[in-house]
Task: inverse folding
């Protein structure tokens, strides 16, 4: 079991590194970080205000990179289950073939998500 979990973390490590880099930037704006169920969650501070200033298509209440979730503190608990689906996607998708796509493109259908898990 431990080996399986370790492989998932290693598999998603390139994206987790990107998420940790973004997370480090959020700490400069007053965010805090906590480890919840093996996933780093960055939230609070001025992250919500900064996210609300992004162009409409880029706004988010939470976004996942590997085993890192960046979000607005008030919504992190509410979207945790949804964001864990994305964490699992990172663990199953080959790191060299990105499923990350612009927000303008729709997310995979629920049937695709069911097939992955």
Result:
């Amino acid at each position: 079991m431990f080996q399986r979990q370790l492989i998932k973390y290693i598999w998603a490590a390139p994206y987790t590194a990107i998420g940790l880099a973004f997370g480090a930037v959020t700490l400069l704006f007053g965010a805090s970080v906590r480890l919840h169920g093996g996933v780093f969650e960055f939230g609070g501070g001025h992250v919500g205000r900064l996210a609300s200033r992004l162009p409409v298509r880029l706004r988010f209440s939470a976004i996942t990179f590997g085993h890192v979730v960046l979000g607005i503190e008030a919504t992190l608990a509410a979207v945790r289950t949804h964001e864990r689906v994305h964490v699992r996607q990172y663990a199953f998708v080959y790191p060299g073939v990105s499923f990350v796509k612009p927000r303008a493109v729709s997310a995979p259908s629920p049937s695709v998500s069911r097939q992955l898990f």
User: Anything to note?
Assistant: The beta strands are 32-36, 39-43, 62-65, 68-71.
